[in-house]
Structures are given as structure tokens and as C-alpha cells.
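Amino acid chain:
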Amino acid sequence: MSRLLIVSNRLPVTIRSDGEHVSLERSPGGLATGLAGPHARADGLWIGWPGDVASLSEERRAEVAQQLDEQRFVPVWLTPDDVKHYYEGFSNAVLWPLFHYRIDQLPQHVGDWEAYERVNERFAEAIAEHHRPGDVVWVHDYQLMLVPQMLRRRVPDARIGFFLHIPFPASEVFRALPYRERILEGLLGADLVGFHTASYLRAFASSLLLVLGIAANVDRVRYGAREIRLGVFPMGVDAASFGELASRDEVGARVAELRGADGCALLVGIDRLDYTKGIPRRLLAFEKMLREHPSLAEKVRLVQVAVPSRTDVAAYQKFRNEVDALIGRINGAFGTPRWVPIHYIYRGLSEEEVVALYRAADVLLVTPLRDGMNLVAKEFVASRTDEEGVLVLSELAGAASELAEAILVNPYDVDRMAEAMRRALTLPGGERRVRMRALRRRVRRYDVHSWVRSFLRVLDESVPRAELSALAMTGAASLHALQERLRAAPRLVLLLDYDGTLVPYASAPEMALPDEGLVALLHALARRPGTEIHLVSGGSRDAVDGWFDGLDVALYAENGFWCRPAGTREWTQQPLPAQEWREQVLPILETVTERTPGSLIEEKTASLAWHWRMSEPVFGAFQANELCIHLAQLLSNVAVEVVSDDKVIEVRPFGADKGALLGPVLAGRDDALIVAFGDDRTDEELFAALPPGALTVHVGPGASRAEIRLPDVPAARRLLEGLVDSPGDAV
């Protein structure tokens, strides 16, 4: 039976020490509650940081480790430096504000990335160490977004799920993150990536397109040889547990105390003291309500609970001072000898105290400026077994997508928020109960246990699709055998595509300059005994000549239309087909270029190419599709073809493909081992024209007829470096 390996930044326990002994206390919270059952079943493990043990002696630490092991908790020990830079630094000083749309809170210099990377690696190592075939791994939240990819490298066939508990921001915001590509690639190591709401999923898909150029198809995305499922799984609370606690006599007694004998209506806010929770604007809205409705004096009060959060961080200290000053001003302006408008509690409350506040509240105010879900709203609903109370909820909390019967507010609109508070206080009893009944049905049905079952069911269904099995990358053992075969060949012919195979694609063709390491590698290969190098580029003759001047290899420009044999400086060209079609096509390309910012035209000897790599992806794809349709209709009776490839559309004469142009190169080489490297459609044409016995190597994602598949440009270069002893010395 497969085990569930749960991975989170913190283990669901708190270490308690009285000096002589240590003990582990289960932490409250939705995640710990919801995953307790799956963790208990099937010998599951929970992997995470157990908390600060720096003050404990070695003996006490050993005692903690033993107790963790007995409860199947796997500790990832973090040093104070790790906590400072990985957790307080990159996770909470960079990712947290940015994912909550608070770009203004980002530091001037985004540091601590190395610490974030290092700790994510340690989590991945811990998972890999305990992973068994058939295990299911479920990684949680923004602190560990690199773990899926890192684990995938270590355990390629692992079943990995990831769930993000905070919002995923709009692509315009996400792209402000300096390490945005690495974060997305990290998440794409999972088989299933889950979000609270559909809007977060759409934002993620948009960022994939705009940052990585990968288009998602509704609920799935193809990345390399794998397909990743995307899903919406709104997290719930343990509704039954809250309902049972709310019904206890001792909670009822606390409710009576809270309501008191003064008859004041009670508004309640319960939040971590965090700048995302909207507390200052909520207080200003409460103040406005009192100012515009003076009759409410001594008839309503607000209990605001603020749980201390990140007290060592300067931004949070400043925020606390702001809240303290605001409460002091409002109480000073409106308070009377018999009445204080705002009761402020700056500490954490027990679960019993929280539920008593839920039960006592006439109105619960949940008005964050941005929140992934906000389980406080659902806890309140689950606790109202009396079917009373009104929920005022921010439109920008994830819970708003489910709790439509709440009074929804824009947390940035103080005036209307004040009106909503007043409306909530005066809502007729019948309407209050109708709203609460509907909310309770939904919260009880889609509780935290339903959330767990739903996510794990979809993860279990996320099996590799049959049509993708052929896209799997070649394993290390096969690559080693290939390298040995190439090294042993008495005569070796290497047909090397350049753009996208030996160097990444550049924003413009003329920008695809070779780096020093590649030039050194090509020199070393050219000097290798019994080896012919044929370097093929889609670039112009002048560009290729300039890049590789002095390199003793056969060079091909414009995908083989121009050729410079090894040992010569003279270029020869293939016969030039009729070019009358250019007079029709060039004006069309010029027009679409004017209308598509970032696009450009590349004029080649025998063809015209329209590149849109630098264009906005969604608009560029639309324009490219329209252009293909228009050109296909226009040129239907002309001896040319319209070829659409990776962010480029090329119009070329029939027969001007790589296979046809480079076929003669292979004549008289029956005794040689021919190996062709390529990455795109033009290389597939070459692969198809190769004689039997030739080897083909495809670089990057996408379908290919090639026998060997490599994930990226660095992998292709590593394979070639294995054929020479020291490529760096051959300059």
C-alpha cells in the first residue's frame, strides 16, 4: 500500500520544555487537522522543521528526535541562519508580500535566494531519502516551491503534488519577482499543482505563458516530456469539530460573559497582525460608521484580536505601531466613561476563546486586502450552530468565491465598508438566518477532510498519458552508452544544429552569439581525430561567418542554403528558386510587424521569416495564427510553403528544407557514424532524410522522431564535451 509523505515548512507540533523533559504538542490549525488522518494511515510520514531547538541540550535534542520518530515525523533541522535568510528573508520578505500584491513591501535588493534554494534542496534530500516506490508526496506552500523539481531530479518517477495556500498573483505582479523562472520551473516538477480558487489557477497559467512561453490547456500543461495537472481545491475547516466545540456548556458561559449586560451589538475581527489583513482600513470604516451614525454610541463595540506575527521584522513592528495609534485615536475620540468603542487584544487566544467570540459576534469582519482563502470566515460559519450572525467578507479573500451569502465588500473602499457594517448590524432576522443556513451547508459539506480527499484523488489520477510516454528523456545509463559508442567510432560525422541546440534561442537572430565555452568546445571537436563537424544555423551568412571565423568546421547558414566547407573561406549557395512571391509577402509581414510590438522580419536569401519571440505571448500567438491563415490562402498556388515553428513563421520555396539541402553532405560517408543534433521542425526534416544507421538527438521538449532525447541546451553540450578530453583548453 502506498504511503503519503506530507511535506511542509513546519511540522504540526510544538516543542515544549520544562528544563528537565521535552514534549511534543500537536499544533492547532486546518492543515494539521485535515492531514492527521492520512498521516496516521498507511505508515505515512510528515517531513518538516520541528522548530527552534538551539536552546536545548544535546540530550534534550536526542529526546525530541526520538519522539518525532515515534510519531513518524521526519525533522529537517534548520539553523538560526537558515531561519533568518530562508524563512524570514526570501519566503516572508519577498514571496509573501509579492504574492499578496504588496510590491511596495519588497526590499530594494532581493537577497537570500541562495538560502531559499539551499533549504529547498535539503527538504528534497530528506524526501528522497525516505521515499519508497509507490509513495505519494504532497508538498505544501510558498516556502517550498522549488522542492517538486528538485525531488523530480532525484526520484524521476515520484508521484508529487503541490498545494499553494496563499494567492497566486496576476502575471503582471508575479513578473516583478527576480527569480520568477526558477519558481515556475520548480512548481512544474509536480504532477498536480493545486490552488484555492480558479482565479489563482488562471494567474498561474498566464505566468507560465508570459514567463516560460508554455501554454496551459484549461486544467493541464505539458512541460517537456511530462503533463502536469492544474486544479482548484478550496480548503475547508473541520466543521464538525467547530460545531461540537461551539455547543459545549463552557463555551456558552463564555458567550454570555462576552455579550454582557450592556446590550451592545458586537462586531469581531480575528487576524494575525499582518499588513495583508486590512486592519487599519477596517478600523477607519468602523470610525466612519460611528461618525455618520452617532446614535450607535454605547450601542456597538468592536473586539479586534490581533495575534502577534513576525515580531522581529521591522515592517511588522511599524505596522503594529500604526494599528496601536489608530485604535488609541478612535477610542479617545468616541469613548465615554461607560463605553470603549474598540476592545483590542494583542495575543493569541485558545480555540475555546476563539469559538466563544464567534458565537458571541453579531457580525464577524473578515476584510483582508488579499488572502489565499481565510479560514477564519469558515470557522465562524461552522461555529454558528444557532444559525445567527452575519459575515462581512472581503471580495479579495479566496473564501469569497465560495461564501456568496456573506456581505461582500471591497476592503479598499472605506466608505462602503462602513455602510456594509451598518447594514450587517441591521439585517432582518429572517435574512440573517437564510444567509447563515446556506453558508453552513456549504462549509459543512466541503470541509477540510473533503479537501484532502479531493486533492489526493486527482493526484492519484494524474498518471502519465500514453501519448507522452515516447517523449521521456533518455536515461543516464543510455546516454553513457551513447557517449562510449561515439568515442569508439573510427569515423564520426556530427551534424550540429546551432540555434536552440547549442545555444538558447535569442530575442533576435543576430543576438544568438556563441559564448567562449561553446567556441572552445567546437575547436576541440574539430581537432578530434576522425571527426567531421557540420554546424548548421538558420542565421544569415554574414552572422555565421562572423561568429565562427577561424573555426575549421563546415558551416551552413540559412539552414543549409549557404555552405562554407571546412578548410575554406568561400561560401557557395544552392540554386536560387523563383522569388516573385516576395513582392506579395514582404508588405504583409511589414504590416503585421507594425501592428505587433516586439516582432521583426528576417530577410534571408531564399526565404522570409517573421519572429515574434519578443512580443506579448497571447497577442503574438493570435497574430501568428492570423498571419498563417492569411499567407496559406494567398500562396495556395505558389511553389512555396508557410512553416510555423517556435515563435517564428517562415515562407520558403518548396524543397528548401534542411533534409533536402544537407542530403548531399552525407554522400560518400557510408563508413562513418552520422549523428545529428536538433531541436525544432526543420531538424525533424533533416532526421527524416538521414540514411539508415544514423543516430538522431532531439534537444528540449516536444514530439520528435529522434532516438535520443535531451532536456535542454546544457545537456546537449555535456554530451559533446564527453567526446573530448578537455574542451576548455582548445581555444
The longest helix spans residues 314-334. The chain is about 40% helix and 20% strand.
